[in-house]
Task: inverse folding
């Protein structure tokens, strides 16, 4: 009985979450994610040193991190754009707040 | 009956998810607009770490080279095959005599990810059983702050064969909800073993504060059926470069325990290049063995989970460590610890070097 309740709870939770996410009105910021902010909020929580790779490899590694670190697609894209774009943090072993390595 | 119920729910959820999946014909599909960068096609990549760890306790020296490659193969934009392998050798000298050399090989995980929509990914294969934050985020040697894992990692370092649903949702501009749910079946296939079970982890993440609080629940459905609960918390302070992390496990049959860790980077407090590349770490932890009644129900093999062995008596441990980054890919680690257990108080020294690598070329 406990197991059935646990399954029901888990399934309900998992169904409710994407359903909520699927409502655009509840995610007004999905188009406005700041790559640098997303990078600092998510990547630097675990990674300290940075090494950047080719854009195609970084694309792959960020997809990996999207799954591993429970990022949304928008966050992953914004982080990739930040890392690959003009704002990309320098490869510096000085461990500034921007430092990160993926994965 | 229960399995059938869950599978029906899983299939229903999966089918429903297609309704939420990105529709390329829909202009407003809740995704970041495509750009030159996002249109970059992903490249198969091998990344991971090379590690050499050594630990010293009175009378015993242990040397452990570890190769930890992660293979990432993107299959289009929605599928990703990923697998992590762990090959390590344990060279131990015990009171003047070398123990037989061991070569351990393990598939940490081998999974196929299907990114259904921006907030949901379905994962199938051999996965890390989601339980707590350490197994989910911090266990790779090139990420963990201390080379010696917490004692209770012996509980959470567990793999399952089955399916996962995972993702995140922005509840509002200040709070994210992350979730991971899994169902695992029993498997006795070599390298792909796993017990039947279900559960998951969910957390609230406050990006502006750098705070995350998570809760995990597992129900093991193998020979012994029991529940496991975990709470985890992290706080990456914004005002000072201090990271705080903790996990608390209540698992009954496998014992209970917790660890608290603080890691402080010295980059903001000195112009000295040595200090700027350094980090100090402190950890305190306790592990409490199962009650006599629980132990009687648990076979000893059930006590040994993952790579780590759980102590057979209550243990308190403290560590102080120092990390130094030689470069952005190479880290040196040193730690001193003291373990307190009835009749077995001892010092622990650990020394390690970690090299993190990835194929695919360096800076563009």
Result:
């Amino acid at each position: 009985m406990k197991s059935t309740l646990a399954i029901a709870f888990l399934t309900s939770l998992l169904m409710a979450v994407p359903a909520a996410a699927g409502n655009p009105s509840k995610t007004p910021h999905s188009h406005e994610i700041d790559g640098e902010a997303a990078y600092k909020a998510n990547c630097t929580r675990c990674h300290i040193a940075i090494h950047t790779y080719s854009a195609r490899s970084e694309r792959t590694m960020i997809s990996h991190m999207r799954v591993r670190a429970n990022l949304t697609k928008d966050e992953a894209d914004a982080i990739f754009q930040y890392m690959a774009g003009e704002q990309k943090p320098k490869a510096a072993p000085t461990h500034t707040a921007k430092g990160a390595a993926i994965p | 009956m229960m399995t059938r119920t869950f599978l029906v729910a899983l299939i229903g959820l999966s089918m429903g998810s297609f309704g939420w999946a990105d529709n390329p014909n829909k202009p407003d599909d809740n995704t970041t607009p495509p750009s030159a960068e996002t249109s970059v096609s992903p490249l198969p990549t091998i990344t991971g770490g090379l590690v050499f760890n050594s630990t010293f306790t009175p009378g015993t020296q242990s040397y452990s080279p570890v190769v930890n490659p992660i293979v990432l193969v993107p299959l289009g934009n929605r599928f990703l095959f990923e697998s992590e392998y762990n090959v390590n050798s344990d060279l131990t000298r015990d009171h003047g005599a070398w123990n037989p050399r061991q070569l351990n090989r393990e598939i940490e995980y081998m999974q196929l990810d299907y990114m259904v929509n921006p907030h949901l990914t379905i994962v199938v294969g051999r996965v890390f059983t989601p339980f707590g934050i350490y197994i989910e985020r911090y266990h790779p040697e090139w990420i963990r702050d201390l080379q010696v894992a917490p004692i209770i990692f012996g509980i959470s370092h567990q793999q399952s064969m089955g399916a996962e649903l995972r993702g995140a949702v922005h509840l509002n501009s200040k709070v994210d909800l992350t979730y991971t749910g899994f169902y695992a079946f029993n498997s006795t296939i070599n390298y792909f073993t796993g017990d039947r079970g279900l559960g998951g982890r969910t957390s609230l993440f406050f990006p502006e504060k750098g705070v995350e609080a998570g809760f995990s629940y597992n129900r093991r459905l193998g020979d012994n059926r029991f529940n496991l609960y975990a709470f985890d918390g992290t706080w990456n302070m914004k005002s000072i470069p201090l990271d705080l992390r903790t996990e608390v496990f209540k698992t009954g049959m496998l014992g209970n325990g917790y660890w608290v860790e603080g890691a402080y980077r010295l980059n903001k407090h000195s112009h000295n290049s040595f200090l700027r590349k350094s980090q100090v770490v402190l950890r305190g932890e306790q592990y409490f063995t199962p009650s006599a009644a629980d132990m009687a129900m648990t076979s000893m093999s059930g006590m040994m989970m993952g790579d780590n062995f759980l102590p057979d008596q209550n243990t308190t441990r403290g560590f102080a460590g120092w990390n130094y980054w030689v470069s952005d890919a190479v880290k040196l680690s040193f730690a001193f610890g003291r373990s307190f257990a009835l009749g077995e108080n001892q010092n622990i020294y650990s020394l390690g070097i970690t090299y993190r690598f990835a194929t695919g070329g360096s800076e563009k």
Observations:
- Chain B touches chain A through 94 residues (CB under 8 Å).
